[in-house]
Design a protein that fits this description.
Blueprint (H helix, E strand, L loop, with lengths): L2 H7 L4 H73 L2 H26 L9 H18 L1
Helix pairs in contact: 2-3, 2-4
Protein name: Phage holin family protein
Keywords: Membrane, Transmembrane, Transmembrane helix
Length: 142
């Protein structure tokens, strides 16, 4: 067998090569798509866990702010009691402390409230990756 015959022995007609490459691409696509979706699900899971951690931190901040705010309110009530009963400087001190504590509690509540914004719970990276994958699949299929 000479060199020309050996080169031609493994060659297929043009139509079969095109069909084989399409079949090969479809097989490759059928293997890669499930793996891609598995990775996308893992990314979504990681983002949701991150969102849950943010939610837990927000709940802690709101709870802490509410406790401090309640303490300030109690001190303000005590200052009203002191003011009505004594009409002297102790109520003024309690009033000042109560106002300061309430301002701190309000600031804590507002910072915790920001953790509950819907944008913190949207899996941005997963949605972006899915859009890119969808575009890539469209390019491969067309």
């Amino acid at each position: 067998m000479n060199r020309d015959e050996s080169d031609l022995s493994g060659a297929r007609p043009l139509g079969q090569t095109d069909d084989a490459s399409v079949v090969g691409l479809l097989r490759q696509l059928s293997r890669e798509v499930p793996a891609l979706f598995t990775k996308e699900l893992a990314l979504a899971k990681a983002e949701l866990q991150n969102s849950l951690s943010t939610l837990k931190a927000g709940i802690g901040a709101v709870a802490g702010g509410a406790i401090v705010f309640l303490a300030g309110f109690i001190i303000l009530l005590m200052s009203a009691v002191y003011g009505l009963s004594l009409f002297m400087a102790p109520w003024l001190a309690a009033l000042i402390v109560g106002v300061v504590v309430m301002i701190i509690g309000f600031a804590m509540l507002q910072s915790g409230k920001k953790q509950f914004e819907p944008s913190h719970f949207k899996p941005d990276r997963t949605l972006d990756a899915l859009n890119k994958d969808q575009d890539a699949l469209r390019r491969k299929v067309s």
